[in-house]
Amino acid sequence: MVVYAGAMALDITGPIEVFDTANRLLGPSGTPYRTDFVSADAPLVRMSSGVVMEAAPLEAGRGPIDTLLVPGGWSLNDALGDQSLVSWISRAAARSRRVASVCGGSFLLAEAGLLDGRRATTHWAYSEAMACRYPQVTVDAEPIFVWDGPFVTAAGVSTGIDMALALVEADHGSALALETARFLVLFLKRHGGQSQYSAVLDAQLADHPPIRAAQEWILKNLDNPLPVAEIARQANMSQRNFARVFRREVGVTPGQYVERTRIARARELLETTDLTIGQIAGRCGFAATETFFRSFGRTLGLTPKEYRHRFQVISPAGLIDRHHEREGSTA
């Protein structure tokens, strides 16, 4: 793993604890992970939180590398300007079986030209900046991690743990990955297609009063068709002007915003209720269950039923019952 002054400690320690725990659970018959730290700031590297890590010089990182891991951090701009670091990452990637990043670490991979023509993710707050800075990279702000060929990019901070669990699963199977997640007392082992945060939608609430009012009206009327013309009327604007101003203020078209909001509401209902999928589709404004399936799969890479099995919250009192699913219901 390459580290640098001002990197975020959790970007580093989160994945490392996953690998270390997997080693302890693996037993003597498996091939354990060995972690080496290298840095241009060796031997002692101070993280943004004040934690100090010991690392070897970059030159010590010679020979084949199984997984090259690059973290993000508040000092990312300084790291991007360090050409010796960026060049080392490029050379090290060439002798790595796979390359992974956490949070803003994907910027460093892109700066090294490693993500050209590939799909990647980063922290949702910086996805637009990454897309503008690296137009040759397809930046997807939704998933918690993206795997494209030998490159795995994780989103914000704690998603590095999810990514590391996926790497353990790829190396040693799902049983060890799940046992590692349990031992670390993680709430669940999340699929890479899960959206980063419903807070992404909150972050898109506009400052412009008519647009913000339209967004709030959308949230209150998700079970309705919501054509753009009707939303524009709520904002007291012409449809053409509304569409232009909405995209400028929110960053997506009104239609895209409506779809994302419907999916966010559907995720919440899948996680916290025992409503059937047909009922959820109706409550979220999808005219047909088939339309809901297509939109949900396109957004998250899972079917609604798969999502519910992975992420549904079961209350201690057992208020959510999956019996109807075991009996072959569409829920």
TrEMBL record:
SUPFAM superfamilies: Class I glutamine amidotransferase-like (SSF52317), Homeodomain-like (SSF46689). It comes from the Bacteria. InterPro entries: Class_I_gatase-like, DJ-1/PfpI, Homeodomain-like_sf, HTH_AraC, INH-QAR, Tscrpt_reg_AraC-type_HTH. Residues 212-310 form the HTH araC/xylS-type domain. It holds the Pfam family HTH_18. Keywords: DNA-binding, Transcription, Transcription regulation. GO terms for molecular function: DNA-binding transcription factor activity; sequence-specific DNA binding. This is AraC family transcriptional regulator. It comes from Streptomyces roseochromogenus subsp. oscitans DS 12.976.
